[in-house]
Specification:
Enzyme class: hydrolase
Distance between the termini: 42 Å
Bound molecules: zinc ion
Keywords: Chromatin regulator, Hydrolase, Metal-binding, Nucleus, Repressor, Transcription, Transcription regulation
CATH class: Alpha Beta
Shape: globular
Strand content: 5-15%
Structural class: alpha/beta
Family: Belongs to the histone deacetylase family. HD Type 1 subfamily.
CATH architecture: 3-Layer(aba) Sandwich
Radius of gyration: 21 Å
Largest sheet: 9 strands, mixed
InterPro entries: HDAC_I/II, HDACs, His_deacetylse_dom, His_deacetylse_dom_sf, Ureohydrolase_dom_sf
Cofactor: Zn(2+)
Order of helices and strands: EHEHHHHEHEHEEHEHEHHHHE
């Protein structure tokens, strides 16, 4: 099969990949509050497993530079980000109107260090994109990222800022087309929405559909305007197992890779699709989940691996540790090494656990029907659409829409704007060839800032049924406020001592 890939800096045929792994030692200290299922502690557990399995030595371990306000505002509204920066648990009651407006308070609570937490997880994903753009690695990993529900002016589903959208905007500076794949059990609505009207980003989300948060992701939702057929939704039912999942994942992704030919891929590895998740209802094993990573990796295209959901935290740590080993191409034992969180993994103390015997509600007939429908949708998209050549837009104004553009509404969609910023590197010799460091080019920054402001966030009606996504439970974790790091994304991220 022609994958259209083979673009990795360290060569296409090697079994090993150059991996950059982003981790902030403070990230595990952020705490959403008592009973909240989202626990940043799971990233610390993952890191401890990686350390004691001896995997850190095979990759570059980087502490992310915190994303700055202007970085976050490339996608998000200024007033929303400024609110996130200012709000504290003590003062939140003085801002009831804004809390409501920005959907902050219940599923997305205000907690100590909230803004630094956002800066940290977004900094890792953007930093990963920068590393990939520069060809410094083949695969970049940020398990703290993947918060796919956040909207331009609204928090949603435990997500405040959408690090994925920000990372994709970064990748678009160096790549004509970026593919986004989402294997979280929830629909990747925030990312889909941001790029719904562009053919430069294709989004593919596999998720539980039907009376389930966030309610979007119907197979009939395929994109809009120039983005029509560049969004793909795979609706699944309870109890899906490894075999059923891969019977859709592999043929669909193979076809997408062949037809769309992305220059980079972002894979959101939400672990709430694993068997036994506290909020999920799928029945995937860690190996079945990781098969998606193995498969994406096999295309030899720069790959950004992100986290996401995952609420049975011992299984989240198992999954992301194993997936890191898959990214590296290093085999690791099922028997877990002794480490500080070993008691979470009893009674077996193994990396892999058997899925349950729950019923698989996805019948063969249903899966086949979905597969055929998706392949038909993919057949309708233009092969590897090329970005139209534009001169770099002046600082004062973005280019006018094409004269033959008959739909004025499309001018405000992501498609128009992301196209405006891209410069081809082939065949147009008068265009600058080098990919400027996107984070240090002020002109580029300004164009992107404008781009983000102009991006329309909600495109057309989506069948949404919002609801609370968890029931409160009692739990006990330490409380901690992280200090803000003054360094910014311009700097090379600090390489960490791996001991
Ligand atoms: Zn989820």
């Amino acid at each position: 099969m022609d994958t259209g890939g083979n673009s990795l800096p360290s060569g296409a045929d090697g079994l090993k990949r150059k991996v950059c792994y982003f981790y902030d030692p403070e990230v595990g200290n952020y705490y959403y509050g008592q009973g909240h299922p989202m626990k940043p502690h799971r990233m610390r557990m993952t890191h401890a497993l990686l350390t004691h399995y001896g995997l850190l030595q095979y990759m570059q371990v980087l502490k992310p530079n915190p994303a700055r306000e202007k970085d976050l505002c490339r996608f998000h509204a200024d007033d929303y980000i400024s609110f996130l920066r200012r709000v504290t648990p003590e003062t939140q009651q003085d801002n009831l109107r804004q809390l409501k407006r920005f959907n902050v308070g219940e599923d997305c609570p205000v907690f100590d260090g909230l803004y630094s937490f956002c800066q940290t997880y977004a900094g890792g994903s953007i930093g990963g994109a920068v590393k990939l753009n520069h060809g410094h690695c083949d695969i970049a990993v940020n398990w703290a990222g993947g918060l796919h529900h956040a909207k331009k002016c609204e928090a949603s589903g435990f997500c405040y800022v959408n690090d994925i959208v920000l990372a994709i905007l970064e990748l678009l500076k160096a790549h004509e087309r970026v593919l986004y794949v989402d294997i979280d059990i929830h629909h990747g609505d925030g990312v889909e929405e941001a790029f719904y009207a562009t053919n430069r980003v294709m989004t593919v989300s596999f998720h539980k559909f039907g009376d389930y948060f966030p309610g979007t992701g119907d197979i009939r939702d395929v994109g809009y305007g120039k983005g029509r057929h560049y969004a793909l939704n795979v609706p699944l039912d309870d109890g899906i197992d490894d075999e059923s999942y891969q019977s859709l994942f592999k043929p669909v992704i193979s076809k997408v890779m062949e037809v769309f030919r992305p220059g980079a891929v972002v894979l959101q590895c939400g672990a709430d699709s694993l068997s036994g998740d506290r909020l999920g209802c799928f029945n995937l094993s860690v190996k079945g989940h990781a098969e998606c990573v193995r498969f994406m990796r096999s295309f030899n295209v720069p790959l950004l691996l992100l986290g996401g959901g995952g609420y049975t935290i011992r299984n989240v740590a198992r999954c992301w540790c194993y997936e890191t080993s898959v990214a590296l191409g290093v085999k690791i034992d099922d028997k877990m090494p002794e480490h500080e969180y070993i008691e979470y993994f009893g009674p077996d103390y193994t990396l892999h656990v058997a899925p349950s015997n729950m019923e698989n509600k996805n019948s063969r007939e249903m899966l086949e029907e979905i597969r055929l429908q998706l392949l038909e949708n993919i057949s309708k998209l233009e092969h590897a659409p090329s970005v139209q050549f534009h001169e770099r837009p002046s600082d004062a104004e973005l280019p006018e829409a094409d004269e033959d553009e008959d739909n004025k509404d499309e001018r405000n969609h992501a498609d128009f704007d992301v196209n405006a910023d891209y410069e081809r590197t082939s065949s147009h010799s008068r265009v600058r060839i080098e990919f400027v460091d996107p984070m240090t080019d002020d002109k580029n920054d300004e164009a992107m800032d404008r781009l983000a402001r102009d991006m329309e966030s909600t495109i057309i009606e989506m069948t949404g049924s919002k609801g609370s996504t968890f029931a409160a439970e009692k739990e006990e974790v330490t409380h901690f406020k992280a200090e803000e790091d003054s360094r910014n994304l311009h700097d090379e991220p600090a390489e960490m001592d791996q001991n």
